[in-house]
């Protein structure tokens, strides 16, 4: 089910904490526009208008609501677009995997501020996350079997983030020990508007140094 109302995503012009939301919107085929933050005044305007429940971004304007908190917004999209299971144990697996994705991607979010790929790799826990996901995906198309869930999309985003930092050749080499996960990555990448968003993102986002500067001057200067 596509989202009919206009959707606006408020965040800086980079991946950060927001990219799982943009990727989820693209995966379900929901068009959205980005309102990029650059200065302290941009964030202050949202806060002064009482549009940020906890004073933080990302914020997604959608369905006549202003959604904050990434995991809660992902779950809203999952329920709305039939990408969340009815079975309680399957719900747990989906929720646990989405939470693991949030943990796994945390070292990647530091890259624009350090530009240190060696540090990113040292802190990216292959044994804890990709190895487990590969095990869960062995012999099945998606985490829950034949039916795609939002957890599949969040796993895809972590790998996409890694590939975005290190390039396709390094990414494929570093993940070659996880064939089921790589096959899943290629499969999920065909969903909705993901290919289009990847192309659009390459020109919509600023470079890493500019992104880091915008974040710092918005939050700290």
From TrEMBL:
Domain GST C-terminal, by residue range, is: 87-212
Gene Ontology MF terms in the entry: glutathione transferase activity
Describe the location of the GST N-terminal domain by residue ranges: 5-85
Q: Which residues form a coiled coil?
A: none
Top-level taxon of the source organism:
Eukaryota
The secretion signal range is none
Pfam hit, one = GST_C_3
Give the protein name, as stated in the record.
Glutathione S-transferase
Q: What is the lineage of its organism?
A: Eukaryota, Sar, Stramenopiles, Oomycota, Saprolegniomycetes
């Amino acid at each position: 089910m596509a989202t009919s109302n206009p959707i606006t995503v408020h965040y800086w012009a980079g991946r950060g904490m927001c990219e799982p939301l943009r990727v989820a919107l693209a995966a379900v085929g929901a068009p959205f526009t980005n309102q990029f933050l650059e200065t302290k005044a941009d964030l202050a305007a949202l806060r002064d208008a009482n549009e940020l429940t906890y004073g933080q971004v990302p914020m997604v304007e959608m369905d006549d609501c202003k959604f904050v908190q990434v995991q809660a917004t992902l779950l809203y999209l999952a329920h709305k677009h039939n990408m969340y299971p009815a079975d309680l144990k399957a719900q747990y697996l989906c929720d646990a995997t989405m939470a693991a994705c949030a943990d796994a991607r945390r070292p990647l979010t530091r890259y624009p501020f350090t530009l240190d790929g060696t540090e990113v790799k040292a802190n990216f826990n292959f044994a804890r996350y990709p190895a487990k996901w590969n095990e869960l995906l062995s012999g099945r198309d998606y985490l829950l079997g034949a039916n795609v869930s939002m957890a599949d999309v969040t796993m895809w985003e972590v790998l996409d983030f890694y590939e975005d930092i290190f390039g396709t050749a390094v990414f494929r080499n570093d993940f070659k020990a996880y064939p089921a996960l790589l096959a899943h990555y290629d499969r999920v990448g065909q969903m909705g508007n993901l290919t289009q968003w990847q192309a659009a993102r390459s020109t919509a986002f600023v470079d890493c140094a500019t992104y880091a500067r915008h974040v710092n001057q918005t939050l700290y200067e």
